[in-house]
Amino acid sequence: MLSLLLSLISLRIFAADMCASSHDPFEHVVSEKGKRTLTTLWAPELLQDEVCLQATAWLQEKVLLSRSRSSPAGPGSGWESLGFECAEPETKLLHIGKTGGSSLKVAYNQIALPNKLLILTHARSKVYMDMERRIVAPPPPADQDIIFFVRAPVHRFVSAWLSTYLKDCDGQADPSCVTWKENPDEGWDTSMAWPWSPAEKRSFDLFPTPDDLACSLSSWNASVAAEAALSMRSLYHVSSDLKYYFGGLQGIQAVAPRIRFVGRAEHFDDDYRYLTSLLVARHAFSETPDREAPSTHASDLADPKFKQLSSCAVLNLHKWYAEDYQIIRFLSSYGLIDHSYPVEVNDLDAAPPEGQYKEF
What we know:
By secondary structure, the protein is of the alpha/beta class. The protein is built from 14 helices and nine strands. The longest helix is centred in the N-terminal third of the chain and has 21 residues.
C-alpha cells in the first residue's frame, strides 16, 4: 500500500509539472480523515489544455488500473482500498464523432456545473469507455450517467469523410472546395481546420471521393482493396465508429445499465430539447441552455458530388460498419432508442439500385 501511494505521489508531481503553472489540477486535492478527494480530475476546464489533459488522464488510468487489478469486488474495494474517494460528475456526455456532439458542446460547455456534467472530447470519450470496461471492481454505480448520440452509419461515414477532407483541401486545385478555415464567420468550429496527416493525404490522393474509397473496399485488385481498408482506418472520424468507442457489441452491452440517454442525430432538435430538459431536472447547469442547439460544422457547404454513393460503396459500408448496426439494434431492444429507429436507419442507409447513385 505504501509503495502504491508513493507511486501515486510521484505521478501527481509529474502531472502537475506537465500542466500550466496557473492551473494545477490537483490544487484541490485535500486531506480529510486520512483520505484524499480527487475532485478536479474530471473538471471540464482541464479539457482546454491538452498537455494537462494527457498527464491527468495518465494518472487517472494508473489509479483505475490499480483498482481493477488489485481490488476484489465488494465492500472496501476500489478507491476506498487505495485510501481515496473519487468525486466524479454525475453525468458524462460522450462525443461520438459526426453525431452532433460539437453542437452540444457549444450549447452546454460554458454553463455545465463540473460536479454534475462532464462534456468529454472525442479522445477522452474513448479513454473513459476503455477504462470503464476494464474496471471489474467495485460494481458500477446504480445511477445512469452516460449520454451520447448515434447516427445512421453510412450517413455518418459521408459526414466523417467530408470533415477530414474540408479541413485542409486545396481550393485552388478543387474550385468546389470550401475549407472551414476559409470561413471563420459561419458558426462552425474553425479549430478543426488543420493539415492532413501523411496517411490522410495519401488517402485523398488515391480515393478523391467517398464513393471511390468505399467502393474500392471490394476492388478485384487486392492492393487497391488493402489501401482502401487502410484509409478507412486512417481517416479521422471515419475510423471512429460506435465499435471503436464502445469496444463493439459486447462493450456496449457491458455498460448498458449505466446509459441514461441515447440521442439520434436524425432527430437532433427534438432529442436536444429532451436531453436539455433531462439535464435541467438534474440541476446540471448554472443557467438554462438555449432551446435551440447551434450548428457548428460545414459539411453542408461541400460539393454535392461528395455525398453521392453507388450501390457498390453502400453495400461495402454495410459490411464495414456491421457491428454499428448491431449496436443500434441492441440499443433499441434495450429500450434506449425508439423501437422504430433501426428500421429508419436501414431505410436511410439503403443502397441505390445497381448502376445508380444516392445522396447521403
